[in-house]
Write a structure and sequence with these properties.
CATH architecture of the domain at 5-258 and 293-428: Up-down Bundle
Low-confidence stretches: 32-39
CATH superfamily of the domain at 5-258 and 293-428: Sodium/glucose cotransporter
CATH topology of the domain at 5-258 and 293-428: Sodium/glucose cotransporter
CATH class of the domain at 5-258 and 293-428: Mainly Alpha
Helix content: over 70%
Strand order of the largest sheet: 1-2
Mean pLDDT: 81
Largest sheet: 2 strands, antiparallel
Distance between the termini: 62 Å
Number of strands: 2
Number of helices: 24
Order of helices and strands: HHHHHHHHEEHHHHHHHHHHHHHHHH
Strand content: under 5%
């Protein structure tokens, strides 16, 4: 497809502005690694929140979301619980504050804060760094797969290259070029560059989302949508079976559902809840989300940032997702059915852009989606090298090197991570496969140890190392033992193996140093099983009080999950013109917002005022 000149100019202007910003802030970012990786803890929470939202608005995830809404209808609103998407609610309610109180730079450095400096702590420090790097490599492969499929539909040049030794497709060539540009501005500007460009990207994406929503709303009628989808497609709720038969509409969709392994939707939902609770209590994985929390000025701003991410992300994003899904169903669905050919459903988004978006807006939208990709990718390649530099090179190899040396190693680490991630990308079979493996298998190995680290005083450094090691091994081996089983159904087995590793390590080693535990508990103040540590602190300070907010936090998390879900459903119901359901969801959004205002927001504002007075 040949883009109009104005579309090409808009895309080129965006790329030039992005590169300019990266170079412009490079002097400020290169002062030291604290500035490079955390922005010197100077960036306001609202910029971090917009940046975080932009970083979650990636092309691969958007392509996947359009695909699942097209295939599963309203029930697709539940499928992001695979991550789980509501881990952001847990972070907002209490985990952001717990994490930010540590005043560390990375999740691996946090290990020293929690477990001390004994041999087990050093092992734990290394294993969480390994996890951070592996997860980043997995996400780079995920991004590589998505951006390649996206770009090849729009850009007309054939960039494939073949030799006797290997073949490079046009998809892979375009992915290389876009990733190289993204890596360049991220290398120069660090966290300042990431946040600055992502704030710009957020506004570009929001305008693009509104445009797509408007096109879909004015181009498709309610009757056209009803005629294009099978019974139950518009039904949010479900029984044990999916009960969605595409026969006579788009027959090949039935094959897609069977390949995904989501037919037993009720069982899938139970697995998502089970996995979601453990994964959410574990806290953010050591990647871009954690880096933004650690970059916040204080614990209150970290919590506000997480809330803002939810507020500004879902409605614009789902305007775009629902818009493209609706346009695809009504106008592409009959063509797909008539052709009878097996299609790649993950290309519905770019094909819909090609067909339905006018010149000018197309350039804006492509710049926005390119921005979304670049923002998310940049966030990951800013986070991962922090572990290599701060937690490996600085800690174990050259602890007394100059800041310039650490900055040079940061650049080298970023390049190395990107190159290895691209190699992994060559072996990715599909976006859906990578999504399910990352969210279910890999994170299944992370959940047990990282949940216990918050809530149990006896959970020592050897337990953490044992749980993480067992989880990583299980996440690698178990899916290969059951190749025909979706990774989400393997989560309980992976979690059980990880828990076994945790308990083996706990009882093979001694409790951690009480002084370390007292410092952690006094500053973080988590709820959970901390009675011996609490007793020691009471001896030193009779006025010390324990965190008794477990039930209040649990209530707020439940309300928060409902609140977050309303932001997903509002744009979908609007674009499929189900106005009764839209009204119900808007009322529910208002009610849950008011509850959270009184039970959560007022509380953190009061704490913030108290800290300022002190």
């Amino acid at each position: 497809m040949n883009l109009a000149t104005i579309d090409i100019l808009i895309i080129l202007c965006y790329i030039v502005i992005t590169l300019f910003l990266g170079f412009y802030v490079s002097k400020k970012a290169s002062r030291d690694i604290q500035s490079y990786f955390l922005g010197g803890n100077e960036i306001p929470w609202y910029y971090l929140g917009l940046s975080n939202a932009s970083g979650m608005f990636d092309i691969s995830g958007t392509m996947w979301s359009v695909t699942i809404l097209f295939v599963y209808g309203l029930k697709s609103a539940w499928l992001p619980w695979l991550w789980p998407v509501w881990n952001q609610v847990f972070i907002m309610i209490f985990l952001a504050a717990w994490l930010r109180r540590s005043n560390v730079m990375t999740g691996a450095q946090w290990i020293t804060y929690r477990f001390g400096t004994n041999f087990g702590a050093r092992l734990s420090h290394i294993i969480v760094t390994v996890f951070a790097i592996i997860s980043t490599l997995g996400f780079i492969a995920y991004f590589f797969e998505g951006i390649g499929k996206f770009a090849v539909i729009f850009f007309p040049w054939d960039l494939s290259y073949s030799t006797a030794a290997f073949n490079i497709s046009s998809e892979q060539s375009y992915a290389f070029i876009i990733i190289a540009i993204t890596t360049l501005y991220t290398l120069k500007g660090g966290m300042y560059s990431v946040v600055g460009t992502e704030v710009i990207q957020f506004f570009i994406m929001t305008v693009s989302c509104i445009v797509i929503g408007y096109i879909a709303f004015t181009s498709v009628t309610a009757d056209q949508i009803s005629a294009a989808v099978p019974p139950n497609w518009k039904n949010l709720f479900f029984g044990m079976d999916l009960d969605l038969d595409w026969s006579g509409y788009i027959n090949s969709v039935n094959t897609k559902i069977e390949e995904d392994g989501f037919s037993l939707f009720g069982f899938l939902f139970m697995m998502m809840i089970f996995k979601g609770i453990f994964a959410s209590l574990a806290g953010p994985v050591p990647s871009y989300d954690m880096q933004r929390i650690l970059s916040a000025r204080n614990e209150t701003e970290a919590s506000k940032m997480s809330a803002l991410t939810i507020i500004v992300l879902f409605i614009p994003r789902y305007l775009m997702i629902a818009g493209f899904a609706v346009l695809g169903l009504v106008y592409l669905g009959p063509e797909i059915q008539a052709s009878g050919a097996k299609i790649d459903f993950e290309t519905i988004l770019p094909v819909a852009i090609q067909r339905f978006v006018p010149a000018g807006f197309k350039g804006l939208l492509l710049a926005g989606l390119l921005a979304a990709f670049m923002g998310t990718f940049a966030a990951f390649i800013n986070a991962a090298p922090a572990y290599l530099v701060n937690d490996i090179y600085k800690k174990y190899i050259k602890p007394n090197a100059t800041e310039k040396t650490y900055m040079r190693f940061s650049y080298l680490s970023s390049i190395l991570v990107v190159v290895i991630g691209l190699i992994f990308g060559f072996f990715a079979s599909s976006i859906n496969t990578l999504t399910v493996w990352l969210t279910s298998a890999l994170y299944g190995g992370y959940a047990a140890a990282n949940m216990l680290k918050w809530i149990w005083w006896r959970f020592n450094s050897y337990g953490y190392f044992g749980g993480m090691l067992a989880g990583l091994i299980a996440a690698t081996i178990v899916p290969n033992l059951y190749p025909d089983t979706s990774a989400i159904y393997l989560f309980p087995l992976i979690l059980l193996i990880s828990f076994a590793g945790c308990l083996l390590g706990v009882y093979a080693g001694k409790p951690d140093d009480m002084e370390v535990l007292k410092n952690f508990y006094k500053t973080t103040k988590p709820w959970g099983f901390w009675k011996p540590v609490y007793a020691e602190l009471k001896k030193e300070d009779p006025h010390f009080t324990a965190n008794k907010n477990f039930w209040e936090d649990t209530f707020n998390c439940i309300i928060g999950i409902i609140w977050q879900m309303t932001f997903v459903l509002i744009p979908i119901y609007l674009l499929i013109k189900e106005y009764y359901h839209l009204g119900v969801v808007i009322i529910l959004m208002i009610i849950t917002s008011l509850i959270l205002k009184y039970t959560w927001y007022n509380k953190i504002e009061k704490q913030n005022t108290k800290h300022k007075i002190i």
